[in-house]
User: What shape does this take?
Amino acid sequence: MLLLLTALALSAETPDPLAKKEAWRRQFSGLSAGVQPIPEANATPREDVKRVTEPSFEYSIRMGGTLDGPSTRSPRGYAAWAQNFQPMRRVRIENLGETDLVNPRLSVNGKRQWGTAQDLVDSALRAYGNPTNDADKARAIYHYYIQNRFHASTFSRENDDPVKMLNVYGYSICNNDGTITMDLYRTAGLKVRYGYPAGHVAPEVFYDERWHLLDSDQSMYFLLPDNRTIAGDEDVAHDHDLVKRVHSYSVNFPDDPFLDEFCASAYFYEGRRGGQYSSKIKHTMDLTLRPGEALEWGFARKEGRKFYAHGSGDLRNIVSAAAGRLVYNGRWIYTPPLHSAAARRVHSQEGVSWGTRPGEPAVRPSAAGAPGHVVWKIAAPYVLVGGSARAEIALGETDRTELSLSFDDGKTWTKVENWAKEGSANGVMTADLDPWFPHQIRGRPRDEAARYSYLLRLTLLAGANPERMGLKALTIENVLQMAPLSLPELELGENKIAYRDQTTGPRMAQVSFHWIESSAAQPPKAVAAPVHPADAAHVEGTQVVFEWKPAEDPDGNAIVDYEFQLGDRPDLPWPLSPNFHKLSSNTADEKLQVYTTPRIGLLNPGQPYYWRVRALNAKGVWSPWSKVWSFIPDAPGVPRNLRWSARDERSLTLAWDAHPDGQPPVRYEIYASNEKGFTVQREPYLAYTGNQKSAGLFPGALVTRFEANFLQTVERAEATFRPTRAFYRVVAVDAKGRRSGASEFLAAPRPFIFSEPVAAGVVGQPYRYQVQSLASIGDLRSHKGYTVAFWDAEQPVYTLLQGPDWLKMDAKSGFLSGTPNAAGAFEIAVNAVLGDKGDQATQRFTLRVNP
Assistant: This one.
C-alpha cells in the first residue's frame, strides 16, 4: 500500500511529459476516458429456474442482446478494474427438499470452480491448456491469479488464504499475494522461496534450473537481456536496468519512466537467500443447505450500506471509490419449514415443544413462566457482513420473547436490543443484525475476527398460557461479501451450466438465474488488418512502431481506446513482458491505433513474434480480438560475455563476443557510467534520484540531469582504454545502422586511479594535482519508509605514501597540494583505498620541480 502511495506522489511531483494526469486519475476512479454509462431502462428481465433431483445435472442457458460482463469489463491489473454494464442480477441455489444439500456446486462454462486451493490451481492450468512443464505451470498460475484480483486492503490478514481472497474479497496487497502465490505454486508441486524487495513482497518460483521473480501484486516480471528468461530477485538486485526497462504496475497504469525507476529502487538485497511463508490454506467453499436454506450470489452491493470487508479501513477512503464498487453482496437466507420434521434438527433446544399443523405455532414454550430456547447455527463459506431476522410469533399481553447471538459456540450470548415488533403488525418481530458483524465501521478494533458462522437463540417466555404462544415462521438473512470475478455469470450466447452436489439420499434443489438483456450498444467490429508491420513481415530494428487500421463501430460510436498484446507464441497465452500488454490511452503515442516499443532491444532479432489488438468504444464495449499477426525483427544480437581481457596500471582491455543470432555487427558502441545498473543513453537525460530531503547523493532532488553515457565506437570486439567510469555496456551495430539491445553491465576493477599525474612544478609556486579513482555511485535504493536515494556512493580514501614534506594529501577529496621549497626530482606514490575489504590502488610518478 505505501509503495503505491509513494509512487503516486512521485508521479505527481516529477516533470515527466509521459505521466498523463488524466490517465493517473482514471486509475483511481474506475473510469475510462470518454466512456459513458450504459442505461438499463430498456433492458429485458430474464430468468431461468430449474429443479434438480440428481447429484449431477447439466443444461444450457442462452443470453441474448449485445452486452455482457466480459465485453464491458476493463483489463485487470494493479488498480481497481471497471465494468460498464452488469447484466447479472442474482443466482440462487435453494433447498426445497427434506434432506440437507451437501456441497452444492454451480459452474458456468466450466469457469470459476474455486472450492479449494487445488481447484484454483486446476482452474488456472485448465485455462492455459493444462501445461505439463513447470515453467508453463508457474506462468499459468501467475497470469490466472493477476487477472482475478486487484490491489487494495482493509488491513486484515483474512486475504492470506487463497480460497478466501479469490472467492470472498477479490482484492489483496503484496503481503497477501506473497503467501497466496507461494501456496498455489506449492499446490502445483513447484519450489518457492522469498524474494527480498524492500517494503514489498514478491516471492520467487523455481523452474528450468533457476529462480524466477513473478510479482503478482504489481503485475510485473522482468526479462534478462535474452528477452526470454524471467529474471530472479537476485538478477534485478544486481542490475536495475532489468526493472527500468519494464512497464510498471500493469496494463491499467500509464507509462511513467520515473515510476519504473522508483520500482527498481526496491531491489538491492544481495545477501543469503532462502525461506518461505508458511501455508495459509485453511478455508474451503464447502457448504450445507438445510431444508428452507438458500445461497444467493449477488452481482451488486446496496448503495449506502457499509457492507465491505473485515478490517479497520474503508476501501473507498483508503484506495478509491472504484475499489469500493467492487465489493458485491450476496445473501444467505434460512427460512426453516418449522412444521416439518426436518426443521427440528436445530443446534440445540431446551424447554420447547413442536407442533405440526400449519397456521398454528410450530415452536411453543413447554410451560408458563419457564423460558424455552431454540438455537440455530448459521454457517456460510462467505464472510458475514450484516444481517437481519424476522419472525411471526403468537404473543399474549404477558408473553415475552428475546433474541440473542453467540460468536463463541454458546459460551457467551449478546442480547439483540433492537428485537421489536415490526411497526403495528401484531406478532411480527424484526431485528437488524448489522451491528454485530464487522462491515467497515470506522473505529472497530483491527483484530476483530471476520465471521463465517454464529448461533442465533430465540427465547420464548409464556406469561400464562403456553398453548397460545409460539413461533409460526422465521427468516434469518445474512449479507455476504463476494468477489465479483468469482461469481457464476452468464455470457452472451449459449452457456453450459453444471450442477453437482455430494448429498446422500434424495434431494430437491432449485437453481435460478436472473439477468437482464440489452442491445443498447453494439461492440465495435474486430480490427481488420495491421498497417505496420504487415503480417509475417520482417521489420527494421527491434524498436517497432505498431499501427493498425481503425476499428469500425456499427452504431457510429467513437473508438476511445485499444488494448495491445504481444507474445512469442502463436496462441498468445500471455504477454512477452509487461511492456507488451498496453492500453493505447496509457502511452505517449498521439494516435490511438499506434503503439511504439519503449526502447531498442526488447525483442530478439530473427525471432518471430505475434500480436493482436481490440478496440473500446465510447459506450465502454470491447470489440472481439483481431486475428493474431506475426513479424520478425532484423537487427544484430546483444553482445555477450563481457570481460576484462588485459590490465596494466594505466589501461584496461574490454572484450566481448558477438551474438550468433541476428545480423552480423560491423561496429560496437561502448557506454559507461558510475551508476550501477545504468541505462544506455546517447543524449543527456533526466533520472529520478529520490525523495530524500537531506541525505543521499542528490539531497532534495527528485530528478537530476545526467550526462549522456556513450563512450566510444570500435570496429572489433574489444577495446583498450583508460577507464574513467565504474561500469560498462556494449551495443552492437549492423551495416544498416540498426542497434542491438545493451549487454549486461561489467564492473571495472576498483579502486583504479585513472587521473593523469601533474609531473612538473616550480619552486615557490603552488602545486596542485587532483587524484581521481574509479568509484561507483551505487544505484537508487528504497530504505525503510520508502526513503529513496543513491545511498551507497563509494568514497575512496586517499593517502600520500611517498613524497617530500611540503606535499600534503586530502584523504577525502584526493587533492594533492603544496608549495615546493627546493628544485629536484621527487618520487611520488599516492594510494586509494576503497571499501571495508581495503581494496587499494597505487599510482607512482616522478615530480620534477624546476628552479
Notes: The longest helix spans residues 174-187. The radius of gyration is 34 Å.
